[in-house]
Amino acid sequence: MKIFSGTANVPLARAICKSIGSQLGKCSVQPFPDGETFVKIEENVRGEDVFIVQPTSPPTNHNLMELFIMIDAVRRASATRITAVLPFYGYARQDRKDQPRVPITAKLVANLLVAAGANRILTMDLHAQQIQGFFDIPVDHLYAAPVMYDYLKKKNMKDLVVVSPDVGGLKMAHAYAQVLEGGLAIVAKRRKNATEVESMAVIGEIRGKNILLVDDLTETAGTLTQAAALLKRKGAKKILACVSHAILNSVGVERLRKSVIDELITTDTVQCPAIDGVKITTLSVAGLLGEAIKRIHNNSSVNSLFEFKGGRTS
Questions:
Q1: CA spacing 20 to 30 A to 285: which of 22, 124, 222, 266?
Q2: CA distance linking residue 118 with residue 121, whole number of Å
């Protein structure tokens, strides 16, 4: 077994290797002056089970292309099996035709990964679970929830209500509410455009309660901050937000600074820098991904990684 990393999240790849007592494979990834990417695998991979760790976080297109080139390089070097490890799967929000003449880019990316030579996909907290069906190769879909649960259980929050900031995240919110033994509520929202949303109403009892907002990813933080503001106006006490992938841009950072969210809890699936004026807690999913890699290599079950005390994440 050999694990390689693109440039998108080398610290996570190193942490994964450390968690399973493996060495990170040697490879050089360098840009040409015209912006092209050059990859050289600097050790023998013939007959090996190869895992390439590369979240497709911003700059998304660059990181995706780097992943395709790395997969092609190890395929041409006669690796037996190639698993693309995408802790964050970019383009996952473009998973359907919701208006005329638009692409289904999540499916296109799936096709490109297979065309490049990936034999298997390992990913975490897809924006839409049905994206697994876009692949004709095996997909192992992990959840960051067990890592989040451990942290939240230690907080021992009283009068807790788990809130989904939109209808799509209700299943995830319900799973959190079950494990943390809290209430459940939902915020109805309307999206104005790619960067702005309007939160309209709260369904559920939240007055005088501590709130945990849960979502799979945040970029501009519009959904989270609007929902938090509405909940605060409706009488919520402390507000925490729990997000698997924090791919924050400058707009999102500014909104979080001004928001009523007391703490943002996220994971290291993508690199999230420290931000002044925002309390961000970053939990590591390296152990979870490392265990999954080990089990895939040994052809044993990955299913038990979804299980936790009190139920299942799926």
A1: 222
A2: 7
- The residues facing 84 across adjacent strands are 52, 121
Which value, to the nearest 10 degrees, does the dihedral of the CA atoms of residues 222, 226, 231, 236 take?
A: 70
CA distance linking residue 151 with residue 283, whole number of Å: 8
**What's the DSSP call for residue 96?**
S
How do residues 257-275 score in pLDDT, each as one tens digit?
999 999 999 999 998 877 8
The amino acid present at 57, given as its one-letter code, is S
- Answer yes or no: are the C-beta atoms of 68 and 113 closer than 8 Å: yes
The dihedral built from the CA positions of residue 154, 155, 156 and 159, taken in this order, carries a sign that is negative
Name the 3-class secondary structure at 154: helix
- Which of these CATH numbers, 3.40.50.1220, 3.40.50.2020, 3.30.980.10, 3.30.70.1660, describes 145-283? 3.40.50.2020
Which burial class, exposed, middle or buried, applies to 6 when counting CB atoms under 10 A from its CB (0-12, 13-18, 19+)?
A: buried
Beta partners for residue 199, in sequence order? 189
183 phi and psi angles, rounded to 5 deg: -80, 180
pLDDT in tens, 37-85: 999 999 999 999 999 999 999 999 999 999 999 999 999 999 999 999 9
* pLDDT of 162: 94
* CATH number for domain 2-142+286-312, candidates 3.30.70.270, 1.10.10.10, 3.40.640.10, 3.40.50.2020: 3.40.50.2020
- Amino acid sitting at position 112: L
Burial of 103 (0-12, 13-18, 19+ CB in 10 A): exposed
Q: Which residues are part of the catalytic machinery?
A: 189
* Residues of the chain predicted below pLDDT 70: 190-199, 306-314
pLDDT at 102 (0 to 100): 95
Is the entire prediction scored with pTM above 0.85? yes
Q: Which residue, chain included where needed, has tokens 């709130």?
A: 211
